[in-house]
Amino acid sequence: MGRSETFGSLVWGNNIDYRAATVKEIPNHIKVNKGDKVYTSGYSGHFPKGIFVGTVIQTGISSGDAFLDLRILLSTNFSNLQHVYVVKDLLSNELKTLEESTKDNG
Length: 106
Hints:
Layout: E1 9-12, E2 20-27, E3 37-39, E4 52-62, E5 67-74, H1 92-103
Antiparallel strand pairs: 1-2, 2-5, 3-4, 4-5
């Protein structure tokens, strides 16, 4: 997320509002404000780092003692999409193999 480099899991599709999503399991000691920007971390392997995802619209949603959830307004209006690209990463197996081989080295 924006300034803090904190990361969580993005969940979308709760049927309440297609324009919003939830970022789950943000440590509750992290200061997050309405209006903060959320970007991809690059950790998932599905999206590169730094893609703008949305803006925080609600903070302080408790998901347990040590974690908070955030509601974000997504930067993409999915109801307006007419064409999308599905990309197959031809090197994903090689990347997984390299990641597995370096786990023991680091």
